[in-house]
Amino acid sequence: MHGFKLYIISLIKHILKKFRKVLLKMSSIDFSILVSLYLLNILQMT
Questions:
Q1: Which residues form the domain of 17?
Q2: Greater model confidence, 16 or 40
Q3: What distance in Å separates the CA atoms of residue 46 and residue 29, rounded to the nearest whole number?
């Protein structure tokens, strides 16, 4: 389970690097909504 958490964290970091330019254009509110939706999807899959 711990390894899975580390995998998710590295995955999120990778995604953030990929979409940094897009994220900079978005407001922090939009970003936090996206992140929470993304995390909810992950939790539902497990």
A1: 2-45
A2: 40
A3: 26
